Each structure stands twice: as structure tokens, then as C-alpha cells.
Amino acid sequence: MQSNSTSQQNPVATRLRPVVYLYAAVNIAVVALLFSTVSPTLATGPAQELASLR
Predict the structure, then answer these.
(1) Using an 8 Å Cβ cutoff, are 36 and 29 in contact?
(2) Can you say whether residue 45 is alpha, beta or left, with left for phi > 0 and alpha for psi between -120 and 50 degrees?
(3) Does residue 43 contact residue 51 with C-beta atoms inside 8 Å?
(4) What parts of the sequence cross the membrane (predicted)?
(5) Could you tell me if 54 and 47 are in contact, meaning their C-beta atoms sit under 8 angstroms apart?
(6) What global pTM score does this model have?
(7) How far from 50 is each of 9, 26, 38, 42, CA to CA, in Å?
(8) Is 17 left (phi over 0), alpha (psi -120 to 50) or beta?
(9) What average pLDDT score do residues 25-32 get?
(10) How many Cβ atoms from other residues are within 10 Å of residue 53's Cβ?
(11) CA distances from 25 to 12, 17, 38 (A)
């Protein structure tokens, strides 16, 4: 093993770290947008009437 391997950082990982953070932030934003479009209310009106007919 190399004695100086702990003092060196991987240059590829250093360059990709901001890309990974940006990708994660975009994914979180998309998930938040999808959850905001879902309504947790119960079915009322015509949808409830159709369910009772079945």
C-alpha cells in the first residue's frame, strides 16, 4: 500500500461532487412537485357515486 494515499484526494470525486449535489437537489425538487400535485382528500361527488354502484 502507498504511504501517502490518505493525504491525496481523488480528483474525479472532487470534480463530480457538485454534480451529484445538483442531481440530488433536482430529484428532491421533482419529488416535492409530485407530492404537491397529489390531493389527500377523499373521493366525493361523482366518483363516490360510481364507487357505490360497483
Answers:
(1) no
(2) left
(3) yes
(4) 20-44
(5) no
(6) 0.53
(7) 62, 39, 21, 14
(8) alpha
(9) 96
(10) 6
(11) 20, 12, 20
Distance CA(37)–CA(2), nearest Å, equals 53
Query: How is 18-46 classified by DSSP, letter by letter?
Result: HHHHHHHHHHHHHHHHHHHH---PPP-TH
- Using the predicted structure, report yes or no on whether residue 3 has a pLDDT greater than 80: no
* Cα 14 from Cα 8, distance rounded (Å): 11
54 CB neighbour count, 10 Å cutoff: 4
* The residue to which cell 491525496 is assigned: 8
Q: Does the pLDDT of residue 10 top 80, yes or no?
A: yes
Cell of 11: 480528483
